[in-house]
Amino acid sequence: MVHRFTPGQKLNVGIVGATGLVGSMIRSILAERNFPVGQLRLFASPRSAGKVLDGVVIEDAASADYAGLDVVLFSVGGDTSRALAPKVAAAGAIVIDNSSAFRSDPEVPLVVPEVNSHALAHIPKGIVANPNCTTMAVMPALKPLHDEAGLKRMVASTYQAVSGGGLEGIDVLARQLAHVGERASELAQGGHDALLPAAEKWAVPIAHNVVPLNYVLGEDDYTEEELKLRDESRKILGIPGLPVSGTCVRVPVFTAHSISLNVEFERPISPERALELLASAPGVELSACPNPLEATGKDEVFVGRVRRDPTVPHGLALFVVGDNLRKGAALNAVQIAEALIE
Amino acid sequence: MVHRFTPGQKLNVGIVGATGLVGSMIRSILAERNFPVGQLRLFASPRSAGKVLDGVVIEDAASADYAGLDVVLFSVGGDTSRALAPKVAAAGAIVIDNSSAFRSDPEVPLVVPEVNSHALAHIPKGIVANPNCTTMAVMPALKPLHDEAGLKRMVASTYQAVSGGGLEGIDVLARQLAHVGERASELAQGGHDALLPAAEKWAVPIAHNVVPLNYVLGEDDYTEEELKLRDESRKILGIPGLPVSGTCVRVPVFTAHSISLNVEFERPISPERALELLASAPGVELSACPNPLEATGKDEVFVGRVRRDPTVPHGLALFVVGDNLRKGAALNAVQIAEALIE
Fold it and tell me: What's the confidence (pLDDT) of residue B3?
């Protein structure tokens, strides 16, 4: 099976989950980047099938015939991906899947093109996985540091945006903020329970709050999201036993995930050298105070606050912010498709 | 000089900075806790002098005569404390100071009563310092774990509320939220610069954002706030060389600071044992998902997400949330005054 395309060749591209937040962004990023689209086909749930988007009639993802497509970008839930992606791959397309369904499959490459595009050399199942949005923000920053000094361990505390939970996440925060409205500053003192929005989607309200427990607890009481950060970092960087302790926290920010990192290396690396490496790293932009509003809508991951972590021999502390919808999802998927064009 | 008071004795209490956010809270906490106040005197800037608060005429802090006071609680800027506190102490009162002015002074005890009230045995300058609000939230949780297993190193990433910046901090967030208003969800995609509030008080806007650079940079590019966390933790826990790497981040939350902690101990300590110790620790309440809205207005520090940190031999990860105005400032100051009554 040929998994590479020729420069100049137009590709027939499908988007499964075309009406969702990431699906919509994939459409605009394909256009922005002048991706060589021949035919574009859009797939969604039966609810949206028949509607027209950008002049294209949406097809029912479950019943459609996928023959003739070269690349199909999936942005749907894990269960749908698990059921549908193998069929689409069997019909001849390369699937680039944004769910967690195949990320830990040893026969499915998990790719951040700046970091491990070499993994695209073998795509035995015709499926490539797009990493989790938190892992994704971290990888372009850690890769050059790992190449220089050998990553030994990683501690990460995150500040994740609600759009990681799709349109529903955005809607929940917007409604909770509106619920409190102009009386928000009264929350500065206790005793305002009547003013608080009810918890929705997350364990406790997200507006004017911080939520340190997302998703269900798994191994050793780490959440699924925290275990993804560990497992995906190991796979992408190629460090099978990398010790990782992540604390994934949701904050009342619409887009762009921030990560406070404390990393230890095998060999010495100074903050000055790290900054030098980061300054020329692909997909990385240095910032004195990297922040979500700065990173939203940008392709690069913003990195700053680089300094020595004095609690370990060769340690660095740094702060990384990346748009979870673009680099964290849609952009990386399109970049994988671009990397398939030799 | 006698620095202890007798149970049953009424104390003449002064509050310097009585009109501020923490000053107001000190007044209400004295009442809540039935602190044995004899005479209450309130001090503030000349701007407020002459006004009446709770039936008490506010005095000009700079020119007042402090004779006859037993305890004076200061909640003003470091410069004012530095100039005024020694005079008030010389007039015979014990000063409990909430600024950073005296915290690193070896002749000034820095006290969290649940942790190191023994330090109140010697108050050579008549001044006791109240720790920084971030350090304060962490101490009641770490103390029992340190006693059990010997704290060896600490990594902390914070999620700090705007009321740490006083009434001005609250006002800035409230105004920035109002500026964006109901169009907030549009921030989920880039290209909405016109919608963004201007940066005020902090390096970048705080509404719908996360600010990883507070205050000025000091030693090794750590901020003053991060260095306070290090130095005050060392002094309060009595571990002079404790290695600490802190990343202090401001989030759009009105009150209660959250801290994601990764700590290493000299000796083994399981998450189960840690939970057992925390369950009976004074000033600590366990929570499955500790969060600022839960902690606001409460006296206890909320602790949860306790699990093994597998990146070090005897490591724990945990999440701590405490009301920065109460335990983080006003409550602890009053608790110090209570501890002075034998």
Answer: 55
B94 within 8 A of B72, measured Cβ to Cβ: yes
CA distance B314 to B45: 50
A40 phi/psi in degrees, rounded to 5: -115, 125
Question: What's the pTM value of the predicted model, to 2 decimals?
Answer: 0.96
- Section B239-265 average pLDDT: 98
Q: Domain B11-131+330-339 carries which CATH code?
A: 3.40.50.720
Indicate the residue of B188, B243, B251 with minimum beta-carbon distance to A163.
B188
Query: How do beta strands A127-129 and A151-159 pair?
Result: unpaired
Greatest alpha-carbon pair distance for chain B in Å reads: 65
Kindly indicate whether the domain formed by A11-130+330-339 is annotated with CATH number 3.90.940.20: no
Residues A338 and A5: their CA atoms lie apart, in Å, by 9
Contacts (Cβ under 8 Å, ≥6 apart) of A83: none
CATH architecture assignment, domain A135-160+214-324? 2-Layer Sandwich (3.30)
Distance CA A102, CA A173 (A): 30
Is A133 noted as a catalytic residue in this protein?
Answer: yes
Are A311 and B213 within 8 A, CB to CB?
A: no
pLDDT tens sequence across A286-313: 999 999 999 999 999 999 999 999 999 9
Low-confidence ranges of chain A (pLDDT < 70): 1-3
pLDDT tens across A100-114, in order? 999 999 999 999 999
Best of B260, B262, B275, B298 to disrupt the A interface by mutation (most A CBs within 10 Å)? B260
Cα–Cα distance between B278 and B298 in angstroms, integer? 17
The answer to whether residue B257 is catalytic is: yes
